[in-house]
Fold these 3 entries.
Entry 1:
Amino acid sequence: MIRKLPGRSLSLRARVILGMVIVSLPLLFALLIGRTVLLPSLSETFHEAIAEVIQETQPIRQLQVLLLNAAMPVNDIIISGDPREVERFDKLSHEIDRMFRETTITAFKLPQERESILTAQREWEEAKARGRAILARGGPRHDAATTRNMKAFDAKIDAAVQTLDYVHELARGELADHLARADAIERKMLVFVASMTGIGLVLTLVVGVLVARSILRPLALLEKGAAQIGTGDLAHRIPPGRDDELGRVAGAFNAMAAKLERARSELEELAIRDSLTQAYNRREFLRHIEEEARRCRRTRRPFSLLMVDIDHFKSINDTYGHPAGDEVLKNIVARLRSSARPTDFIARYGGEEFALILPETDGTNAIPVAERLREAIAAQPVAVTADKSIRLTASFGVATYLEETEEIEHLIARADEALYQAKHAGRNCVRRFTLA
């Protein structure tokens, strides 16, 4: 029997050579062909599959993130009326157009992939036209026509993102094709080895079984791993432990899977974060508040919503410039994070307005939390230039789910109304919405 020498790990080549010394010439020929032709083909198939998935999905994911970000300036100008959102939208539009141009000339093998990208591009062109029409009208605006146009704009953005999702599905289909090729290679290897082994002696059979076991088990693990990757399970890893060619293929497979997993996590995080402040964006806020509302309806325990607006923010931009305004926004988020509770959810709602979801918090207990956050913002000055610091204040509006309403739209509207009251009460204060 072939045994591993103590303290050493025989390579695949060494095991094949040792088998050739023992077995007959037919088995020598079979193993030599398997080592020099079939195994490299199988390894190349796996490398091709992973490389194609990385090459095709990364630019598509980047496009999806840019499309989702492009919706923010259009939403923000309706809320805040900030004319800078036009420039921001144009900048994002140019980047998206450039990405579409580069992506369409990428070597996508399937016609369906290229057609899906062109379809997504057409959806984007329609969305871009609607977005520019909304931006041209300025804001803030809350009329029915603007609402309809905004819904149509969001629908086109979502359609483009979903169409690009189909490209990911096609990429997974290509990976399945590679797996089929690997299966075919494996079957040929099995048939070839079995036919040559059949004409050998009993010793040939024994050695052949041992050698096949040392090859086929890691191949099965590689096949299973590739199948898991193909279904979207990027956390799957092949167990380590072999110090040979197949072990190195397994190591390369694990490294590429880890790279894919990191890339997907980073892209998913980018899609739900505001690029300037790193707070959650408005889209993620709306998703999270719906989830919190479902939980509250099930448990009948309230949660509170804080709407926060930086006082006199426009004058900061006008006096010290937009870079100073950006630093103020980032500083506000840092102070909110340091003073909020670990369970509180912080999002940039639009412009200089932020939203906080306070789980398991009724209206009475939400007021002290809001006051603590207000004091944290006003506590220390913020450097806006190299030699100038200013003190910031913010106004807070509070509304509570279950106590005042069970409709998300009404809750946000009532928190906004309370914020409006805080502004008119002199700013730098907290107001809670109360039913008349």
Entry 2:
Amino acid sequence: MTNMINPATISRPDFAAIAAWIRPGAKVLDLGCGDGSLLRYLQERRDIFGYGVEINDGNVLGCFKNGVNVIQNDLESGLSSFESASFDYVILSQTLQAMRHTEIIIKEMLRVGREVIVSFPNFGYWKNRIQVVAGRMPVSETLPYHWFNTPNIHLCTLGDFEALCDQQNAHILERIVMNGDRQVKILPNLMGVLAFYRFERRS
């Protein structure tokens, strides 16, 4: 493709972490895609063919401006409009914690995609733990809302998510845990801010 690199996405280590798992030319579905910035990044860096699913009117408009194919739909209603194994990768980037029916969306992603990529803020990060011990719900860069106005309803740690994958018959292929632009390899459930998982249905 000849698209110019979008300057706004050059310094996005979270995008780069996901892109490293995507093979060039793949077919990608991004759920809760926002304004399409991740899909545009993947188009520019991996020459993918992508679709986004987004409910917010303003974000749908942003997708059009970013040159991204988008379907306006509520993820909570499921992915029944997509055939099984119709995408190489299905991505849910920093949206998992806002889903009401977490188990259903994971099951549907495993049905629709050959591989699934999920990222989420790690509630087990040590600074979050300290705020909880101090008697307050955590507020941070990755969890920027207060308890009374947050869209996040299902916060989890790395251990929680891995247990869910096991329950959903998902085989974890790779995990990356980050703190800013650094990859965390020592005590990731304590020191990591953002977690990325690549997994597939267990055969």
Entry 3:
Amino acid sequence: MAKRILVVDDDEMVLMALDELLKPEGYEVQTVSAGSEALQKLDQGGYDLLMLDVIMPEMDGYELCKRIREKEKYKETPVIFLTAKSRDEDRARGLEAGGNLYLSKPISPDKLLGIVSDALGEKKH
């Protein structure tokens, strides 16, 4: 079965780019543009990996990650922050909120695919 990835970012271009990058690799990708939408999606289905932006209206990625970690089903699910915020204190906040990895945009597609594959415990040839 395809691994399911939920991508949360308020930038439509980022959502489209990640969708186009991940789907051909065989992942089932769902994209949402707000934290509240993400929480609803999480309740509807199981995801193997979550990718979150930090800077979003209404609820930032840190808050979203904390709420995700409160859900029993998602306590161990890998969470990758993919954000323009690159300062050390931002990274520390992301990891403190429950994120597994904190990546700064821009990132090369190949590098991102490798990181996603590793986070999902897959071995690529």
